[in-house]
Amino acid sequence: MATLQTRATARIMMSPAVILLFLWMIVPLVMTLYFSFLRYNLLMPGTEEYIGFLNYQYFLTDPAFFTALANTLILVGGTLLITVIGGILLALVLDQPFFGQGIVRLLVIAPFFVMPTVSALVWKNMLMHPVNGLFAWIARLFGFQPIDWFAQMPLFSIILIVAWQWLPFATLILLTALQSLDGEQKEAAEMDGAGAISRFIYLVLPHLSRAITVVILIQTIFLLSVFAEILVTTNGGPGIQTTNITYLIYMQALLQFDVGGASAGGIVAVVLANIVAFFLIRLIGKNLER
Amino acid sequence: MARATTTRSKVIFTVIGWTIGFLIFFPILWTFLTSFKSEGAAVATPPQFLFFDWTLENYREVQSRSDYFKHFTNSVVISVGSTLIGLALAIPAAWAMAFSPTKRTKDILMWMLSTKMMPAVGVLVPLYLIFRDWGLLDTRLGLVAVLTMINLPIIVWMLYTYFKEIPGEILEAARMDGASLMKEIVYVLTPMAVPGIASTMLLNIILAWNEAFWTLNLTAANAAPLTAFIASYSSPEGLFWAKLSAASTMAIAPILIMGWFSQKQLVRGLTFGAVK
Amino acid sequence: MGSITLEKVSKSFGTTSVIPEIDLEINDGEFVVFVGPSGCGKSTLLRMIAGLEDLSGGRIIIDGKDMSSEAPAKRGLSMVFQSYALYPHMTVYGNIAFPLKMDGQEKSAIDKKVKDAAHILNLTNYLDRRPGQLSGGQRQRVAIGRAIVRQPKAFLFDEPLSNLDAALRGNMRLEISDLHHQLKTTMIYVTHDQVEAMTMADKIVVLNAGRIEQVGSPMELYRSPKNVFVAGFIGSPRMNLIEGAEAAKHNATTLGVRPEHIRISATEGAWTGKVGVTEHLGSDTFIHTQVDGIGQVTVRTDGDFDTKHGQPIFLTPDPARLHRFGADGQVI
């Protein structure tokens, strides 16, 4: 189907999207890279000068960076743990035939469509509020002292909110993968005398491994840049207890107007994300060859 | 599997399934219920579940006090606008990649995907400065541009996977039948690709509607879509839970319904075809 | 009018040459079949004539005009695809009308042509249906309808019957041959099935590994195959190709004899052997025998011939119909 003519037109048809995306990627990235080597603060215009790796040195040796890095990793890791395990369990339940399956499926995926600012505010106020929140009421009902979520365990609270948002995604993908498992395979395993648990370990889990990898990689990409949930609940606090890398750079750029420092941080974030992206791209690329 | 499941296991799973479904959906349900309460009832202890004085007052208040519809319109313009422009750019590109693949097609697709993986903060500073210098801060135009670029790789990818499923012979037949390139796209490809294009559109409207990094950082009052509008409720002076709930309900309802309709295509779109 | 000339046409993908160099003359009104095993380049050749595939070298001349680099639509050819390639979102009417619409013809003219075509192809009652609601044979006829309304200089068929079941295939073979007699338009037909080639063609082009092995009428190819490949490819059951001592007796490297040119007897003959598997088709019987010093030989005889597995048997090939091939595979 490929003649020279069609190939030439193909190139023309592709070019607007490719060129725009290329500019979108390269121009800001080069600017970030350039700024990262400058002393550049919007509050002190006219003092820009080349300072080499000083911004990186400041950013990478700032204790806040390590806290933010740790917070980022805990946030990503904690959310992944909850969503992957919860997602597998949920997918297994939803895969069983029961009454009203379709409706339950809709209920389960609903949180994914809720905008981050709404879910953060609803959880923070109406559920986790230490006095009037629903959780506090339940705790008192059972005679416990209500937890002041955002004061006592701020990062965990954010993990909980983010996990609620991403659990549907994991469930939906794992469920789709689960349903593509060949029924005859399961029956063959049953004929071979495998019980429910060994069927899960030897048949279902290996079949899901690919989908699990996809869930982990895609969620990681998104979770590395969790922002709105932090902005509307804790503003990174108390102190910097819930500041992740994204939020740290945001503070440096738009609250302290330190363009140089924020740019250096931005480059660091790009490098971190690339490490994850590398694996994801290879996985999807392998898939393309089929 | 062709096997009769026992009624007992079906009942057990019905109970488990509905319990889990209810728990996960509860925050949304609770928001919905609270939006019909008075502010007093909203913070009452013990909480009032169904037996309270239902009122529409909050919806009226939210609109009259805070110009809800301006933000709603912003959300619509930004999400639909960026999706349409994205489609206009992506349909020809995906067409080319699906039907005239070259050795480099795969590399281009992969590269497009990689731009999606760049963290937003990495380019926050220059983009903010460009927007400031070009007067794009707090404009719908600026946000449409940014969201178009953010979602373009996803649109191209989704369309590509859909187009791949259209047999090339049909397009060749059109070519033999004397259709020009434009006619081939208008009369043959597009009608066949409509379901794929529609679900791509739906998913991207959802993603753009809920995008909450650029919309929060690049807008103030004028162009703020619902994400930013809701965020303004986080200010600590006074808790208006009932009004927050009303605003939230209106912000998520349209997208939730669209999401429910497009759930089948969602998986494929979100995993770039890695899971079907 | 529709004469097509291929001049030194070649095709390579990257460094691999698919079609080295082909010269071929197709006369106006001829039914030409390209036949060969899969991967022999016959479909590529057809697609090059159609303009769906670039030439790597050479020229394609249609009605005296060099069309080597014209767009497919400008060549005045119609094509019927293996998958039929019907537009699933259009009705049968819409499908058949599509090329006319693309040509910018008037509505009333289109209507008349579509209805005429539908009449010829027995599709009048199905014009409002969509391809998905049709049977395989009906879809095939729609694809043909779409091809004939343009009144092309030539029809190109790319394995059009391979998706149909055996009975339908027989019917469609007749219908296409019939159509050719009605329209008298040049047809180029690609298939891997030698039965289709034998039954439909005025001229068969046997292709192997991108090369033309032989061009000729069905009976020419049957009676005097130029080489071992054609001998083995044309005719069913396959010609027995015998090598070794028996071939050497006839001063040949390979000796060919068709199953229908061997006399079989229970009592006497030139070769002795044992009966293996016997296939009764009713009208014919194919007997696979194991001949001493020669090996497997298939014999075709009339339907009532009765044998038992393992029974000794005598065979006598018709000496006038032996085909002798040299070491290079060419006929001597």
Automatic annotation (TrEMBL), chain A:
GO biological process: transmembrane transport
Topology within the bilayer: Multi-pass membrane protein
Pfam name, any one: BPD_transp_1
Gene3D superfamilies to which the protein is assigned, alphabetical: MetI-like (1.10.3720.10)
Alphabetical UniProt keywords: Cell membrane, Membrane, Transmembrane, Transmembrane helix, Transport
Predominant subcellular localization, coarse grouping: membrane
Subcellular location: Cell membrane
Transmembrane spans: 12-37, 64-94, 106-123, 155-179, 200-228, 264-284
CDD domains: TM_PBP2
InterPro entries on file: MetI-like (IPR000515), MetI-like_sf (IPR035906)
Domain ABC transmembrane type-1: 69-280
Any one GO cellular component localisation term in the record: plasma membrane
Similarity remark: Belongs to the binding-protein-dependent transport system permease family.
Protein name, as recorded: Sugar ABC transporter permease
Biological source species: Phyllobacterium myrsinacearum
TrEMBL record, chain B:
Family: Belongs to the binding-protein-dependent transport system permease family.
Gene Ontology cellular-component annotations: plasma membrane
PANTHER family to which the protein is assigned, alphabetical: INNER MEMBRANE ABC TRANSPORTER PERMEASE PROTEIN YCJP, MALTOSE TRANSPORT SYSTEM PERMEASE-RELATED
Spans traversing the lipid bilayer: 12-33, 76-96, 108-131, 143-163, 184-207, 213-233, 240-261
Membrane topology (UniProt): Multi-pass membrane protein
Superkingdom: Bacteria
Major location category of this protein: membrane
GO BP terms, alphabetized: transmembrane transport
Occurrences of domain ABC transmembrane type-1 (ranges): 72-262
Keywords: Cell membrane, Membrane, Transmembrane, Transmembrane helix, Transport
Name listed for the protein in its UniProt record: Sugar ABC transporter permease
InterPro entries: BP-dep_ABC_trans_perm (IPR050901), MetI-like (IPR000515), MetI-like_sf (IPR035906)
Compartments in which it is found: Cell membrane
Taxon lineage: Bacteria, Pseudomonadati, Pseudomonadota, Alphaproteobacteria, Hyphomicrobiales
One Pfam family here: BPD_transp_1
Native source species: Phyllobacterium myrsinacearum
From TrEMBL, chain C:
Keywords: ATP-binding, Nucleotide-binding, Transport
GO cellular component term of the entry, any: ATP-binding cassette (ABC) transporter complex, substrate-binding subunit-containing
Membrane topology, from the record: Peripheral membrane protein
Originating organism: Phyllobacterium myrsinacearum
Domain named ABC transporter: residues: 4-234
Localization in the cell: Cell inner membrane
Entries under InterPro entries matching the protein: AAA+_ATPase, ABC_transporter-like_ATP-bd, ABC_transporter-like_CS, ABC_transpr_MalK-like, ABC_transpr_MalK/UgpC-like, Mo/tungstate-bd_C_term_dom, NA-bd_OB-fold, P-loop_NTPase
The keyword Transport appears for this protein: yes
Protein name in UniProt: Sugar ABC transporter ATP-binding protein
Keyword ATP-binding: yes
Main location: membrane
Molecular functions (GO terms): ABC-type maltose transporter activity; ATP binding; ATP hydrolysis activity
PROSITE patterns per the UniProt record, alphabetical: ABC_TRANSPORTER_1, ABC_TRANSPORTER_2
Similarity-based family: Belongs to the ABC transporter superfamily.
